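Archive entry. Fields below.
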Amino acid sequence: MAQYKLVWRLGDDAHVTLTVWRDGRYQQLPLVVPQRWFGAQFDTYRLS
Amino acid sequence: MVGATYSDVGTVTEADLLDRLGQHEAAQSLYLRVYDQYQDAPRSPRSTSGEAKRTGQSTLAIRRQPWSRSCFHTALESFTLATRKDAPKDGILVRYVTPRGASIGLRANDVFRGGGRRSSPEHGPVQARLASRR
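PREDICTED_STRUCTURE:
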């Protein structure tokens, strides 16, 4: 989680493409994130 | 597997992965490509003789072996390989989304597996990551 936050802050481009696991498959989301602020709570995910 | 590497470190990582998957010839060509560019010698006669002493094989026999295979004679290491179909084993979980996050396009329970850069046609969704390294 800390690593992700650090890498995320290395750039400031609002246009990003994220690879997410959603609805049982991988999807690429082309997003516009002004100020790189998602407005979401994150946590470390581990398959249990 | 889909991937694109643009640096010596990335190419070596890709070669390491290919070697672990048993694709020794492909791995070897990548190692040699790095060698050609960066002169990071993959094997010297001295290392061959050292390996001969250690393993009891002749230097000729060692030279006949694919180089990449001899580099990983201690067998494979554990690694995580997510494909287009496998559920992720780790990542970043979106636990809660505010209206701003929803307007951006996020959803609760999304799991980030990669990205964060401007999109490139070479970047596929397959994520290959070594979980542990020597």
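CURATOR_NOTE: The first strand of chain B starts at residue 80 and ends at 81.
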